Amino acid sequence: MRAKCIFSSITSTRAHISITTSNTKLFDKGNQQFPHTYIVPVEPNRATRHNTTAEEKAQRRSFFGFGGGSTSGNDIASVDKEDLQQQQQQVELSKSSSVTTMTSNSLNTTENKSSLTTNATSRSSIEADDLRTQERERLLEKYTNYDRVILEQRKNRPKLKLDDFHLLRTLGTGSFGRVHLSQSRHNGRYYAIKVLKKAEVVRLKQVEHTNSEKAILESAANPFMVNLWGTFQDDINLFMVMDFVPGGELFSILRKNQRFPDHVAKFYAAEVLLAIEYLHSKHIIYRDLKPENLLLDSQGHIKITDFGFAKHVPDITWTLCGTPDYLAPEVIQSKGYGMAVDWWSLGILIFEMLAGHPPFYDDDHLKLYEKILQGKIKWPAYFDPHAKDLLKRLLTPDLSRRYGNLKGGADDIKNHKWFSGVDFVRVSNRQVRSPYVPTIRGEGDASHFDRYPETSEKYGIPGPDPYREKFSEF
């Protein structure tokens, strides 16, 4: 099984390391599962489906575009014409001129009322459409301007230092450091502080990756990415102050439930798609998409973390890095590659969420790479046909056919039938309720993360610092 920790070691050997995962106890609080959706069992005798409330069904409709029809002005006019025809037939059968006159007057009145009703309905429909259009434009503008607003806020922040924080429990560990839950001494907010030992970063030849991670996080901001609020260093360590995302890893939720129903996988895939699209708009390749690197916030929305392999690439790069199960064929073949590798990884992620395992797997990495290059996938019978079609278009080695890498870009994926009915404007503004909302007892609740042995790390101790020039931007 793959390594599982929120603090993935940014080492060049990570692509060749497989670490047995620990059993994460995320559901000790009443053994809760998705409270707002169905969990489809892997075996027929497993957990039964949950009932959904009217509110939950309505929320699902808003996500998938299910909704009742409305009566248009033309429909009303059509009904009125049928009534008029019946009344006209009655007039022709009548021999009384007075009755004919009265009926004629009645018809004129009915026609006038019908016309007024139709016009009023049409105006109301147009006004409602205008309001919806204005609201969508407002939401789209809000999402588009998100990074500008956040980046502007970062400009005027004071330089952070170790004394600004209380360092609390460990959230995760890696090859050359750990992540601490921390609380600001000034505003009381909780943060995750990633601590890297300079000597280990240098020894493992990760200076460039570390500096690149800092630069990318400082230049980017998106609702579906962790925010970097500041960095600093002492003579021994580097410190990166980031959002504390309390819901834990998507990996833990997926393993607990073995696989996700179609609409649950679709929800997470939609949010990840928007994050990748945003990064690509800034010429950034992520290169390490997997459930372990997807954290859930207090409302159950995605936050991509661990940008150790992310890179600003205007054209192509050749570095072999990533997680073996998620490597695209062009990476394995040591060909120059570009942003299309992230769309391949999105296909692997969707498959793993739907099936409970990646499409290509082998304990022997060389055999795994052979399977990826052969491209033969065993499709589970329960896969939605549209999901299967999309995955075939993402998991193709032919870059001239891979969705996301074509002229339409990410829109080709958004417009695919599997995403039919998904309102990406509402998704971008986190207005679609998550199928799983983690139970958070309060700010600073880290119960959704594993416990790690606490060590008496001495931070801020003066000493020789032969590497300061290598990390001058910290």
Describe the structure concisely.
The chain is of the alpha+beta class and 474 residues long. The chain is 39% helix and 10% strand. Its EC number is 2.7.11.11.
Give an overview of the whole structure.
Among the domains are: 142-245 and 444-470, Phosphorylase Kinase, domain 1 (2-Layer Sandwich), CATH 3.30.200.20; 249-429, Transferase(Phosphotransferase) domain 1 (Transferase(Phosphotransferase), domain 1, Orthogonal Bundle), CATH 1.10.510.10. The two termini are 34 Å apart. It contains 14 helices and nine strands. Residues 3-104 have low confidence and may be disordered. It has helices spanning 54-64, 73-93, 97-144, 146-155, 198-203, 207-219, 250-257, 262-281, 329-332, 340-355, 365-374, 385-394, 410-414, 424-428; strands at residues 165-174, 177-184, 190-197, 228-233, 237-243, 284-285, 294-296, 302-304, 311-312.
Count of strand segments:
9
- Approximate strand percentage: 5-15%
Cα-to-Cα separation, first versus last residue: 34 Å
Shape annotation: globular
Strand order of the largest sheet: 1-2-3-5-4
CATH homolog superfamily of the domain at 249-429 = Transferase(Phosphotransferase) domain 1
**What is the percent of helical residues?**
25-40%
From N to C, what is the helix and strand string? Answer: HHHHEEEHHEEHHEEEEHHHHHH
Main sheet makeup: 5 strands, antiparallel
CATH topology of the domain at 249-429: Transferase(Phosphotransferase), domain 1
Summing up helix and strand content along with how strands pair, one would put the structural category as: alpha+beta
Radius of gyration: 28 Å
What is the residue-mean pLDDT, rounded to a whole number?
80
Q: What is the correct CATH architecture of the domain at 249-429?
A: Orthogonal Bundle
Task: Look at the structure and give the CATH class of the domain at 249-429.
Answer: Mainly Alpha
The total of helices stands at 14
The parts where pLDDT drops under 50 for at least 5 residues are 3-104
Keywords: ATP-binding, Kinase, Nucleotide-binding, Serine/threonine-protein kinase, Transferase
Binding site for ATP: 194
Region (Disordered): 91-131, 444-466
Catalytic activity: L-seryl-[protein] + ATP = O-phospho-L-seryl-[protein] + ADP + H(+); L-threonyl-[protein] + ATP = O-phospho-L-threonyl-[protein] + ADP + H(+)
